[in-house]
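[job 4417] fold queue: 2 targets
>>> target A
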Amino acid sequence: MLRTKNIYAQICNSNKAGHQLSDSELCQLQSHLMAMYKEIEAVCERHNLQMSLAYGNVIGVMRHNGWIPWDDDLDIMMPREDYDRLLSEFIGELPEKYKAYSVHTNDGPYERFAKIVDTETEYVEIMGGYKHHEGVFVDIFPIDNFNPHKRFLKLRKIGMMFMMYTATSVKQYLVKNEFYRKLMCSTLDGKRNYRIRNIWGIVFSFIKPEKWYKWIDSASKEKKHTGLLHVPIGQALFYDGKDESIFFPPRKTKLADGSYVYIPNKPEKYLDIIYKNWRVIPEDTERWHHFVRKFSLGKKEISTIK
């Protein structure tokens, strides 16, 4: 069975739903995201907190010596202890226009991981609309210890997937995003997926998504140091932990434009684990991007659709 994200992407691509950013808009967005990254990096360096780019941003560094040309987001990952300290102790050192959504901050979590949003911008996604400012954002993921010998490990992973599925289903039900509903229900797979999630969301709506995300964050933590690490989200829950030397210490790398970023210590091995064929540039139809209804960087509105 296809995951919601895959069905959603297929429908959006086939219906040409939302606004796909032009090359000029992408360039502006990437520059803005890099500025946000540098602000976060400065706070981390000031307090000796380890961080690195994650996922597709690492591909951008290794394959393109910068950004993947069509990439429209920025992901950071941090060891759990540093992640918790950044969000609970030092997040106030970021510019006032940035709002942090996490289990550690006053605004609470919007996702199972932290999201830093620039409130002077707008970045309204088709799937969005739940109790937060929809602006240009940077996602920050915790890297947790992985204990392969923990009792009932498989059941624990399934329990985590249950909580994640439930949190997003409850959010879908509470948001009642009519644009998203019509889009998903335009195909049989999408309609089935939307209705199942909506029913699931109704059943568990007596517990708000924020509570589910707090439980997920708590269940993700593993105090025992095993030398193995993982980022406990989505399908990655069912992967084994990987040697910590793949992640740490982060490597500071120079990009083509002369700037520097942190990436995992062994970036090729990291990418081989997650993407396997990351060295091959995918076809247009296989390229993931966010589908937006409104995009503004604060000075002027760039794009809007109804």
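>>> target B
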Amino acid sequence: MPSSCGFDADKTAIRQQYLIMRRATSSVVRESADELIRKQLERLPEYQKAELVLSYVSFGDEVDTHAIIESALAAGKQVAVPLSVKKEKSLRFYTITSTADLRPGMLGIMEPVPDEERLVTPEMGKGSVCLVPGLVFDGEGFRIGYGGGYYDRFLAFYMGEKLGLARTMQVSSNPLPRGAHDVHVDTLVTEQGSFRISLI
């Protein structure tokens, strides 16, 4: 449970602020931005070279990944999507052949059916890209999500390229509060362009 002061309270307030902002954005604006984000993503050399794309399955008013998944599959790429393991607060990615392979999971989010033959192992992550969701990102690639820590636990051991997807209104000009276990993305992709993160 979040504390009422300090670091957790800061993250909670920011999370609520960006949830409100995202919900207030019209569907027309979101759809236009998301199509441009897909095009920006598909121009990235890292994405073009990747044979395996690890993608979240967008839910509600998140940056849409359904079109990205379908486009990647049509291009002959392998696509894997996450299954939430609640007791471990972790993610396991399984390859899919289409979005028809998905079923409603935690909170109604579409998830793959667990199949050990389709499980993505850490070694398979080399040379892949992972599309990372977030409510807000900052200029150093750190993010605030929904507060479960699922993605940070997965990304801590992920060996591929981490690509954050965000509309420009989800990019903060100020550094976000971060913890010791928070993991930054390597590149941030918005409708206005892609930005490689360089931390010195």
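[job 4417] complete. Note on B: The chain is about 30% helix and 25% strand.
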